[in-house]
Amino acid sequence: MTDVKISDILGILPFPSLAISVREKISYMNEDAVQLFGGGLTDRHYITALRHPNLLEAIDATLRDKKSRYVRYQGTIANRDVIYRVTCNFDHKEHLILFFEDQSGLEDAIQMRRDFVANVSHELKTPLTSLIGFIETLQTAAKNDPAAREQFLSIMKNEAQRMDRLIADLLSLSRVEASERLRPTQVVNLKDVIGESIEALTPMIEKSEVKMKLSLPKTSSHVTGEYDQLRQVFMNLLENAIKYGKQKGQISVDISEVYYEPKLKKDALSIAVKDEGPGIDLIHIPRLTERFYRIDPHRSREQGGTGLGLAIVKHIVNRHRGRLSIESAVGIGTEIKLLLPVH
Ligand SMILES: Nc1ncnc2c1ncn2[C@@H]1O[C@H](COP(=O)(O)OP(=O)(O)OP(=O)(O)O)[C@@H](O)[C@H]1O
Ligand SMILES: [Mg+2]
User: Fold this and answer.
1) What is the mean pLDDT of residues 130-140?
2) pLDDT tens, 81-107?
3) Helices and strands in the chain, H and E counts
4) What DSSP string describes 155-189?
5) pLDDT tens across 185-242, in order?
6) Which atom of ligand 1 is found nearest the CA of 306?
7) Domains of the chain listed by start with CATH number
C-alpha cells in the first residue's frame, strides 16, 4: 500500500486515525487526529508527537513484533474528555496504523450500572440492617417483654414492606424498559384510569385531607396505551402530589385536547396534575426522573418512597410516545404535565 492510498483511506474514516512509518515518523493524520493531537506533527518522530506512555508503549511493541494490539487512551477533543480504544495495526509492509474508537458512551453506561447496583444495595441494606438489629434484640433483651415485641414486630413489618416495594418497583422498571420499543395497542379511557387511581388512593387522600378536582375534555379522553402502565403513571403522580403537596390543599387533574401538538406531530391529550405544595427548586427539576433521585431522601423514605416512581413514569410515557414536563414555583406548587397521543 502506498502513502497515497493510506491517506485516502484514513482521510474518510469518521474517527481519529493516523499512520506511522517504519522509520518511526508520523506519515499521515486525518482531520480528526489533527483535532485530537494538534497540527504540524507529520514527519515528526511519534515519541515527540504523541507523548502518551500507553500509546508509545503499544506503538513500540507493534513496531517490534508487528502484532496488532489494543490500548486505552484518554484525550480531549472539542473541549470534551473522550476515552478511546486505540487499535494498533501493522500493515505488513511499512506502516503502523492507529485507529481511535470513542468508548465514552460505553464507559458511561458501565458507570451508570455501577451506580445503580450501589444504589440498590444501599436501599436494601438500610432496612435489612434494621431488621437484623431487631431480630437480635428480640432474641436477647426483649425476649420476655411482650409489649416491646409487639412494637418491634410492627417496625420490622414496615421495613420488610419497604424492601418488598423496592423490589416490586425495580421489577416494574425493568419490565417497562424491556417493553419500551413495543408500541402499546389498547384503547384506554383516561377518565377510567384516573378515576380508578383516585379511588385507590382514597385512604391517603382522606388522611391528608386534600381536595381532588378532575376536569375532563368535552369530547373523548381516549388514548392508545396500556391500561396498567398508565394506571402506574397516575398512581405515582397523584401519590406524589398528595405526599409532597399541601395538607388540606387542592390537587387538580386537568385533561384537555390539543389539536396538532407540534412536539408529537399529532393530536394529543394534555394532562396536568397540579398541587399546592412547597414546590421544587429549579436545580432539582432536570434530575427528578433519575432513578433514586429524591430531593429530601429522609422525608421520601419516611413516606415509603424509593425514588423510582418518576423514573418509571418517564419510561412509560416514552413508550407511549408522549412527553413529560415538570414545572414548579417554590411556595406556590408543582405541575406535572403529560402529553399523550389521542386514539
Ligand atoms: N409534586 C411534587 N412536589 C414536590 N416534590 C415532588 C413532587 N413530586 C415528586 N417530588 C420530588 O421528586 C422526588 C422523586 O419522586 P419519585 O416519585 O420518583 O420518588 P418518590 O415519590 O420519592 O418514591 P416512589 O415514587 O418510588 O414511592 C421525590 O422524592 C420528591 O422529592
Ligand atoms: Mg413517587
Assistant:
1) 95
2) 899 999 999 987 789 999 999 999 998
3) 11, 12
4) HHHHHHHHHHHHHHHHHHHHHHHHTTTSPP-EEEE
5) 999 999 999 999 999 999 999 999 999 999 999 889 999 999 999 999 999 999 999 9
6) 26
7) 3-102 (3.30.450.20), 105-178 (1.10.287.130), 183-343 (3.30.565.10)
CB 16 near ligand 1, within 6 Å: no
What is the grid cell recorded at 58? 503499544
Question: What's the confidence (pLDDT) of residue 7?
Answer: 86
Q: Is the pTM of this model over 0.85?
A: no
Q: Is 238 in the pocket of ligand 1 (CB under 6 A)?
A: no
Question: Which three cell numbers mark 6?
Answer: 493510506
The alpha carbon of 4 is separated from its chain's Cα centroid by a whole number of angstroms, namely 46
- Residue 295 near ligand 1, beta carbon < 6 Å: yes
For residue 301, which atom of ligand 1 is closest to its CA?
A: 22
Is the beta carbon of 324 within 6 A of some atom in ligand 1?
no
Question: Mean pLDDT throughout 58-74?
Answer: 93
Name the residue at shortest CA distance from atom 21 of ligand 1: 305
Neighbouring CB atoms inside 10 A of 189's CB total 17
Q: In what order do the strands lie in the sheet with 17-21?
A: 26-29, 17-21, 95-102, 80-90, 69-77
- 313 in contact with ligand 1, CB cutoff 6 A: no
Report whether 119 contacts 292 (CB < 8 A).
yes
Report residue 332 as a C-alpha cell. Answer: 406556590
